[in-house]
């Protein structure tokens, strides 16, 4: 059993203010109150560092880095003192709501003096390290999944551009089609390979619909069936759980449209500043972000009843073929956004084309892995958030956790 003692934060860590960032861009991350905000050409701190949001909306947010970085004047940073583990201190601060200690109601501000006086019960160094290792293992796995997801999406986007924008897919000899003299024909999208053909969305078997929410909105409904709005249709693998909204089970049971079965293309339908429209797309499935959920009236659900072609269309819509069309049409609308006809009149590559099928198969495999990783990250995050307060309070001992996972 480890020995726990009460310490002031100022006794276990040295806290300082960041500085105004250099003007020259580079590869060194610049940290503000909301994480990385830019990159510059030099660092003002190295090694294990705890970053704390100092001012504004993200006052009290906490991050950890172990490399050369620049801490901006919107943040503070903490370095552990001898006998104390940096990663453990990061977790005790992460578990605390540091924003509650900020002064100023209209413009929250955290000071070194206030942070130095905070007190925490802390075990001996070996126990600190053991607790931090358990929590770090979960965070590292989450980070690895996120990295894999980003690499998979980047690879699919690169391949899509290579095959369907540059038309450098392998020809029958394994050579890049267009640069090897492949024949091209004019089309509604510009030049495309000879014998390729286009179809309109409206001419393909499909389902295009929005969801709905109760009259009077969903304010005050704290449980039920999740209802996803435009704020969560940002990109593949993204969902903001802090903004989840619900419809009642009774309302959901009566809904005849808008249920997400998985692998449909979701399209940000309307919203934003007058005169501009920024389209976004997403795709959910594999239990991410929920097993059962609906979209609301600000999102389109487009399903071609073919998961591979749906996945092809995720990358097709998020390309030079569709984004400019939606931006133009949506920006001209009285209320920024697109309608069903904007979607139905789009030209797409025929789903029967061999290269479309081949890419669709690759895209579905990539999307499936991404969504499964997102689902696993939910489970890992829930486990970490359950263990964190119990471990750093001493309610749960390290050996208890290890015995349950071996």
Q: How would you sum up this structure, described in words?
A:
The protein has helices at 9-12, 86-95, 112-116, 125-164, 249-254, 307-317, 323-332, 340-344, 354-393, 398-405; strands at residues 5-8, 13-17, 28-32, 35-40, 48-53, 62-66, 70-71, 75-80, 119-122, 184-185, 192-193, 198-200, 207-209, 225-228, 245-247, 265-268, 281-282, 294-295, 299-303, 347-349. It is an alpha+beta fold. The strands form seven sheets. It has a four-stranded antiparallel beta sheet with strand order 2-8-5-6. Strands 13-19-16-17 form a four-stranded antiparallel beta sheet.
User: How much helical structure, as a percent, in the residues?
Assistant: 25-40%
Sheet with most strands: 4 strands, antiparallel
Total helical segments = 10
Rg estimate, integer Å: 25 Å
- Average pLDDT rating: 94
Based on helices, strands and strand pairing, what is the structural class?
Answer: alpha+beta
Strand order, biggest sheet?
Answer: 2-8-5-6
Strand tally is 20
In sequence order, what are the helices and strands, one letter per element? EHEEEEEEEHHEHEEEEEEHEEEEHHHEHH
Q: Which residues form runs of ≥5 with pLDDT under 50? A: none
Shape: globular
Strand content: 15-25%
**Separation of the first and last Cα atoms:** 20 Å
